[in-house]
Each structure stands twice: as C-alpha cells, then as structure tokens.
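Worked example 2:
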Amino acid sequence: MKKTLIIAAAIASSLISGCASQPLSTFDIFHAHDLNGLVSSGQYVQKADNFFVLNDSSLSMDEDYLGAGYPAQPSPNKLSVEKEILNRINLTIPDLKLTSSIRSFGFGPCLDWGFTQLNQAPGPYSKSAFGSGVDTLTCASGGTPLDTGVKETTKDLSTTAGNIAVLILSDGEVDTDPVPAVQAMKRQYGDKLCVYTVWVGNDKDIYGQAALNQLADITGCGFGITAERISTTAGMANFVQRIFLKDNTPLPLPAADCSTLDNDVDGINNCTDKCPITPKGAQVNQFGCWIVGIKFDNDKSNIKPQYYPELDKAAIVIKDNPDANIEVQGHTSSTGTAAYNQRLSERRAKAVKDYLSRNTHAKGLTARGYGLTRPIDTNETEEGRANNRRVQLEVLK
C-alpha cells in the first residue's frame, strides 16, 4: 500500500512538473590527455575490465550548476555537466578492451515512466558507442531512487567477467537509502568491484557529497570526488588513470613497519599520523595534527583572552621554525548553512593568523577556512560540535 502511494505521488509530481526542459549547453573544447603511452610502455596495465555508469537523471539535476570548471553557453544545468564529464572520460580512456554500460535513475517521462532506465546495454566499449549512450541522457525528471538504479545495475553486471568499475554521478540528494543496495552489490561481486562517485552539486547539496563518499567507501577500493576536481585536463587524466590502470613497476623492498616510526617526533606513529611534518614542540591531537587549544562559541570568531597563553605557545614554535610555510585552518560545526559556515571558518582562521603574525612577524603564515567539511567529532552532540569549532595549523610541503 505504501509503495502504491509513493508511485502515485511520484506520477502526480511528474505530471505537474513534466519532463524538465534541458537547454543545450555548448562547453569549451576539452583537450584530453593521452594515456596510451603509459600502457604501451608497460609502466601501467589495465585494471578495470568493465565500466558501468549510473547517472542521476532526477529533477534536481535540472537545476543550474553553480560550481567552477565547466564554462558553457548558456550556463549549464547539473545534468549537462554530468554528460560533459562522461564525454571527457570517454575522450581520456586509453585504448583498452572494455565492456561498458550506461543506466540512469529518476522517474517520469524522461525515463519512460520507470524509476531507472538502461540507456546503453552492456556491450563492447568504443568511444563512438559510449558517446551515443551519453547522448540518450536528454532530460531530468522525478525523484532520486538511486537504490533502484543500484539494484538494476547489479543485475546488469551478471554477465561480466573480470574487474568492475561502477561510476555514480549525482548531487547526492537521494530519496531512499542506497547503502544496503551497494552493500548487496559488493557481497555479490566481492573484490572484483570498485565503486566511484562524482558529486555534481552546489553548496546547498553539500551533505550529498558525504553520502556519495560513503557509497564509494563500501567497496574499499573506490573513492569519491567532486566535479570541480576533475574539470581540468590533468585532473581528468588522473581520475581515469586511477579507475582503469594500475602501476606495473616492480614493488620496492618492504618498508619498515610504520607503527614503529615517528618521523616528526610528535608522539604519533607514522601509520596514524595524518600531519607527518608537524614541527617539534607543537601540541598535536590523536591524529598528529597541530591543534591550537582554543575553542569558539557558536557563530563566533573572536578569540577569548583565556586562550592567549595557548596561542603564545604556538607562537614560540613558529619562531623556532622561521622558514616553515604554515596554513592556519579554520573549522566549524554543522550548525547553519554550508555557505555561512565557510565564511565563519575563514574569519576564525584570520583571527588566529592575525594574532600569531603580530607575535611572531612570520612571513609564512596563511589563513584558510574549511567550513563544515572536515569534522573531527560528531555533530550530533554539543560537545562534539564544540570540538569541531576549532583552528589547527598545518605545515605545508
């Protein structure tokens, strides 16, 4: 009964909104990097034998894309950027023997009134055939049933042989939890399967990025990335190389056990240390990162006088390392919008940087805000949110 009501509501919504009209956007010419030399030299060998795309064609993808890296006339919507990414991937893939497929998810007339549609059936990959499959992604409509798309893709993969790369493009604003479906796909295909995600979203969709990253993490060998990160020729080449190729150079001799090493002598072993070049004397957290022991009130960037002694300790370390390039990083909890938190984190970073500059006259200090994107604790409790409202220092290489 519940499912019937959901379908009825989706049909009603699609009848009201129709199939969103997609203005044709003409993108700047993309010059792909040639990866064939890596293969022909023997330096790299093929890693993926199957390349299956799952594309978000729901109504939210008709929204204007506000990120950088995809200049076009007229300004593109998110679906147009998804298609442009797939076309750039197609141009960059080296000469490999692959099986490829494209499936979309959404609802309504854009998907023949289904929740998912097979736009290109699994078959031998060629640039022309794959490009034709991308061309069938003509419009966006309905909700975002990513879990249904994953389940159908799992069936599509049944005839494959060899290693599998599944690529999900979306803004991450899904209607139902796709995690169980990806977990089931992983159980069925095991170590042969890697899931990769590309977040094609705007600031208001920021939580969707984390949701997509979670899906990529399930397989243990995939990863999530943003559309902006792969918008350049070099960024796209690196992305395609990581999906399709693996280094064939001989493995080096086994290194020393990282758990027994502490190169920067901060008390955190190399296995755990996420900030491996912290200067001597810096106060670090459990991850080996230089934390200034101050906390900010919610929605505030002013430094309380009680924390001046902590900053003075950091100033001593900076004076002892006059040539270090140090980034003062501001962070926030998740209270409020992503855009507001970004500005707040920048103000926090600048406040600490200005204090340290006055007390050290160091020229290598810069300030950068990271908003709510790098929490170190839960945002579900007040204590966790307080820990996330922080400033940390990082020595840049």
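Residues 258-395 form a domain with the 60s Ribosomal Protein L30; Chain: A; fold (CATH 3.30.1330.60). The two ends are 59 Å apart (CA to CA).
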